[in-house]
TrEMBL record:
Record's catalysed reaction(s): a polar amino acid(out) + ATP + H2O = a polar amino acid(in) + ADP + phosphate + H(+)
EC number: 7.4.2.1
Membrane topology: Peripheral membrane protein
GO cellular component, one term: plasma membrane
Residues of the ABC transporter domain: 28-262
Family label: Belongs to the ABC transporter superfamily.
Protein name (Swiss-Prot/TrEMBL): ABC-type polar-amino-acid transporter
Residue numbers spanned by region Disordered: 1-24, 272-291
Domain of life from the UniProt record: Bacteria
Annotated organism of origin: Kocuria varians
Stretches with biased composition (Low complexity): 1-12, 282-291
The entry's keywords: Amino-acid transport, ATP-binding, Cell membrane, Membrane, Nucleotide-binding, Transport
Length: 291
């Protein structure tokens, strides 16, 4: 768990620190966020706060808007309504210095999005040099330290295609860490991996959490969420349905939609029940995650 560490304060000279709503105390502050694609309302009034050093796992069915929410946080998507602040930057401020804000946020995707034509080391140095303007030697030193952290410094000269999926995802994490982010966003980082490599990636993420990194993690790994998250947020249909400590949300969910989702995730062979059959007396999820 990671309750004690504070994230570094944003450097001075970049002036988009938030004032309203106590946002500057949160690593992430989202209020009344709405996002539509045409007629499809994907986010329907999301409120979410992540404290510095907190690990929040975001769970929910396919299509519930989890990726869209993460993508709004660093302006890969523009929301129609609501406010977002990240690391003291008001993301929804039209005057925002987008690049300065994005430098504070590391993002790791399901598909690793490494540059195939660059070596592992170059993947981890290129943005440091181009975006942070670090001298090449310093960028290399930082990259190697982060590759060591994910256990891959001996792969530094290889190309991504020469690595397993799990190794590529560890490189993607090292690349994100090399930018010294205040906040790491993970969007299903293990769901494209072979089962035997999932554990390595989760172990790296556990280590990051233990080191005090602020993390917002979309995941279907319920045991990770239960063990590592300070808080679990369950989304369905573009709203936050339920949130709280993992032992409550996963161990004793209050809402029937949370229960229906968890029973499907914990027993993937179960046939999804029709919506009207989801009554409040539905059985709690299988007991294999209780302590
Ligand atoms: N660029 C887009 N244009 C139109 N519709 C989109 C776009 N991106 C997402 N959507 C729709 O928004 C809804 C939410 O998508 P999103 O990717 O956020 O879901 P998710 O919770 O991440 O699901 P999954 O668990 O499958 O990754 C879906 O219905 C999706 O089809
Ligand atoms: Mg998604």
């Amino acid at each position: 768990m990671s309750t004690s560490a504070a994230s570094p304060t944003p450097s001075t000279g970049e002036s988009h620190h938030s004032d309203a709503h106590g946002a500057s105390e949160s690593a992430v502050h989202v209020q009344d966020l709405h996002k539509c694609y045409g007629d499809l309302e994907v986010l329907r009034g999301i409120d979410l706060d992540v404290a510095p050093g907190e690990v929040v796992c975001l769970i929910g069915p396919s299509g519930s808007g989890k990726s869209t929410l993460l993508r709004c946080l660093n302006l890969l998507e523009t929301p129609q309504r609501g406010t977002i602040s990240v690391g003291g930057y008001t993301v929804t401020d039209p005057e925002l210095d987008v690049d300065a804000m994005r430098r504070r946020v590391g993002m790791v995707f399901q598909q690793f999005n490494l540059f195939p034509h660059l070596s592992v080391l170059e993947n981890c140095t290129v943005a440091q040099v181009k975006v942070l303007k670090r001298p090449a030697a310093e960028a290399k030193r930082v990259a190697l330290a982060n590759l060591e952290r994910v256990g891959l410094n001996e792969k530094a000269s290889q190309r991504p295609a020469q690595l397993s999926g799990g190794q590529q995802q560890r490189v993607a994490i090292a690349r994100a860490l090399s930018m010294d982010p205040e906040l790491m966003l993970f969007d299903e980082p293990t769901s494209a991996l072979d089962p035997e490599t999932v554990g390595d990636v989760l172990a790296i993420m556990r280590g990051l959490a233990a080191d005090g990194m602020t993390m917002l993690v979309v995941t279907h790994e319920m045991s990770f969420a239960r063990d590592v998250a300070d808080r679990v947020v369950f989304m369905d249909g573009g709203v936050v349905v339920e949130q709280g400590p993992a032992r409550d949300v996963i161990g004793a969910p209050q809402h029937h939609r949370t229960r229906a989702f968890l029973s499907r995730v914990l027993d993937p062979t179960a046939v999804a029940a029709p919506e009207q059959a989801d009554d409040a007396d539905a059985a709690p999820p299988a007991g294999d995650l209780t302590d």
